[in-house]
Design a protein that fits this description.
This protein has 488 residues and is of the alpha+beta class. The protein folds into 2 domains: 322 residues, Outer membrane efflux proteins (OEP); 64 residues, no CATH class. Helices cover 69% and strands 10% of the residues. The chain is built from 12 helices and 4 strands. It has a 4-stranded antiparallel sheet with strand order 1-2-3-4, with no helix packed on it. Helix 4 packs across helix 6, helix 7 packs antiparallel against helix 8 and helix 7 runs antiparallel to helix 10.
Length: 488
C-alpha cells in the first residue's frame, strides 16, 4: 500500500512538473482513486464502522467503574437528642440532689446511721464528677462527625442475559461495517466509470481534432485548386465561394473541437486530482485507429447479483432491519446481570462512627422483568417487522432492475460492435469515393460540388468510426459496471 501511494505521488508530481509521459487508462484510474475525496470519506466510514463493531463486542465483557464524592454538610447528624446529651453531661450533678434527699430520709428514720450516711455522702460527692465525665465520654462516643463525608465505590457489572440485545447489536454493527465497505466499493466503481468516460472523451476529441485538421487541409487544397482554375477560366467565382464557405465552416468546427478537447482535458485533470493546467497526454489519443477489442456480451446474472454493491447493500440493510426486530423485542424481555461493588466511606460506620476510610464488598444478581405496557412491545415489534419487509421488497425490486440493466448493457455491446463493423465499411467506401472524386476533379469530369459532397461523406464516415470505436469501449465498461465487475 505504501509503495502504491508513493508511486501515485511520484506520478502526480511528475505530471505537475510538466512531464510529458503519456498517461494510460490504468494510470488515470490510479490517480483518480488515490485523490478522490468521496473515496477518502468512504474509507473513513469503513474505519468508523469497524471501531463501532469492536465497541459493540465489549458489551459481552464486564464493565468496571469508579465513583468518588465529597460532601460538606451544614449540620452534623446526631444520634442523641439535646435532652439526652444534657442528661448524660450532668449525670453526676443530677444525682447529687436525689442522693442527698435520700440520705436525709434515712437519717431521719434511723438516727443511729447518721455517721455512716455522712461518710457515704462524702465519698459519693467525690464520685459524682467522674460520672459527669463518663456521661460526656458517652456523648463524644455517639458523635458522627458527618459534616465532612467522603464516599468512594468501585462497581462491576456483567450482563448475563439482555433479551438478545447484545447479540443483535453485534450483528448490526458487523453488517454496518460490510455496508460501509460496499459503499466504498460502489464509490470506486463510480470513480472508475467517470474516469474512463473522461479518458475516452479526450481520446475521441483528439481523434476528431486530427480529423478536422485533415478535412481542413483537404478543403484548403481544394480552395487552392479552384482558385487556379478560376484564373484559368475553367471554374466560376461561385465555385470558389462555395469552397471558401466550407473552409470557414471547417475552421469553426476545428475551433469547437479544440475548445471541447481543452475542457475534456480539464475534466480528466480534475478527476485525477491534478492541476487543471497540467499538460496531459494520453497513451491512446495519438493512435490513428484504436486497436480492436473482442466484444463479449456474455453475462451471468448470478455474478451481477453477487457483485453489484447496490444489491449487497440492500441485502445487508435487510439483515440489519431483521436484527432491529430482535432489538425491539429484547426491550420487553427479562434482563439478568451480575453486579459487584466495593464501597468505602469516611466517616465509616462499621465500628461505630470513625473518621477513617473503611469499606466493604457486595455481590448480587439483578433481574428486571417487564410486566405490563399495554401492548407497546407488540406494536413496536410489528412496526420493526414491517420495516424489515419493506427492505426485502426493495431488494427484490432492485434485483429486477439489475436484470433489466444488465440485459440492456449486453444489447448495447452487441449493437456497438455492429455499428463499428458498418462504420468500417462506410469509411472504406467514403475513402474510395473521395479518391474517385479527387481524380475526376483533376481530370475536369467532376464538379466542385461533387468533390465537396465526397469530402463531407469522408468526414462523416471517419467521425462515425471514431464514435463507434469509443462506443465499443464505453459499452463494455457499462456492461462491467452493470455486472459489478468494474475495477476487479
Amino acid at each position: 500500500m505504501k509503495k502504491r501511494l508513493f508511486s501515485v505521488c511520484l506520478l502526480a508530481a511528475a505530471l505537475t512538473a510538466g512531464a510529458q509521459r503519456p498517461l494510460s487508462l490504468d494510470s488515470c484510474r490510479t490517480l483518480a482513486l488515490a485523490g478522490n475525496k468521496e473515496l477518502l470519506i468512504a474509507g473513513e466510514k469503513v474505519t468508523a464502522a469497524r471501531y463501532q463493531r469492536k465497541a459493540a463486542f465489549t458489551n459481552y465483557l464486564p464493565s468496571f467503574s469508579a465513583t468518588g464524592a465529597y460532601m460538606r454538610n451544614q449540620k452534623e447528624i446526631s444520634i442523641l437528642s439535646d435532652g439526652q446529651k444534657a442528661a448524660l453531661s450532668g449525670l453526676g450533678s443530677n444525682l447529687a440532689g436525689p442522693l442527698a434527699g435520700a440520705a436525709q430520709q434515712i437519717v431521719a428514720a434511723h438516727p443511729e446511721l447518721a455517721g455512716l450516711i455522712s461518710s457515704l455522702s462524702t465519698q459519693l460527692q467525690s464520685v459524682l464528677p467522674a460520672l459527669d465525665q463518663a456521661g460526656n465520654s458517652i456523648i463524644d462516643a455517639f458523635r458522627t462527625d458527618t459534616r465532612n463525608v467522603y464516599v468512594g465505590a468501585i462497581s462491576l457489572t456483567q450482563p448475563l442475559y439482555m433479551g438478545g440485545k447484545i447479540r443483535a447489536y453485534n450483528k448490526i454493527t458487523r453488517y454496518a461495517e460490510q455496508l460501509a465497505r460496499q459503499g466504498q466499493h460502489a464509490g470506486r466503481q463510480e470513480v472508475i466509470l467517470s474516469t474512463d468516460q473522461a479518458y475516452w472523451q479526450v481520446v475521441s476529441l483528439a481523434s476528431k481534432k486530427r480529423l478536422a485538421e485533415g478535412y481542413l487541409r483537404l478543403l484548403q487544397q481544394l480552395d487552392s485548386d479552384v482558385e487556379k482554375m478560376i484564373k484559368e477560366g475553367v471554374a466560376t467565382r461561385a465555385d470558389g465561394l462555395s469552397v471558401r464557405v466550407k473552409v470557414n465552416e471547417a475552421e469553426m468546427t476545428l475551433t469547437k473541437v479544440e475548445d471541447g478537447l481543452s475542457l475534456a482535458r480539464m475534466l480528466l485533470c480534475q478527476l485525477c486530482g491534478l492541476d487543471l493546467s497540467t499538460p496531459l497526454t494520453l497513451a491512446d489519443e495519438n493512435l490513428d485507429s484504436l486497436p480492436p477489442t473482442l466484444a463479449n456480451a456474455d453475462f451471468d446474472l448470478s455474478t451481477a447479483y453477487a457483485n453489484r454493491p447496490e444489491l449487497r447493500s440492500l441485502e445487508l440493510a435487510t439483515q440489519i432491519y431483521r436484527q432491529k426486530v430482535n432489538v425491539t423485542r429484547s426491550e420487553y424481555l427479562p434482563t439478568i446481570a451480575l453486579m459487584g461493588n466495593y464501597l468505602v466511606t469516611n466517616p465509616s460506620v462499621f465500628n461505630s462512627f470513625e473518621n477513617k476510610f473503611r469499606g466493604m464488598w457486595n455481590v448480587g444478581v439483578m433481574v428486571q422483568v417487564p410486566l405490563w405496557h399495554w401492548g407497546q412491545g407488540i406494536y413496536k415489534t410489528r412496526a420493526a417487522k414491517a420495516e424489515a419487509r419493506i427492505a426485502q421488497y426493495q431488494l427484490q425490486d432492485a434485483r429486477e432492475k439489475v436484470e433489466l440493466q444488465v440485459s440492456q448493457a449486453a444489447f448495447k455491446v452487441n449493437e456497438a460492435a455492429r455499428k463499428l463493423t458498418m462504420a468500417d465499411g462506410n469509411m472504406a467506401k467514403a475513402e474510395e469515393n473521395l479518391r474517385y472524386a479527387t481524380l475526376g476533379f483533376k481530370e475536369g469530369v467532376i464538379t466542385t460540388s461533387n468533390v465537396l459532397e465526397a469530402q463531407a461523406a469522408w468526414l462523416s464516415a471517419h467521425s462515425e468510426k471514431i464514435d463507434a470505436q469509443i462506443d465499443v469501449r464505453l459499452t463494455e465498461i457499462y456492461l462491467r459496471k452493470a455486472t459489478g465487475t468494474l475495477g476487479d
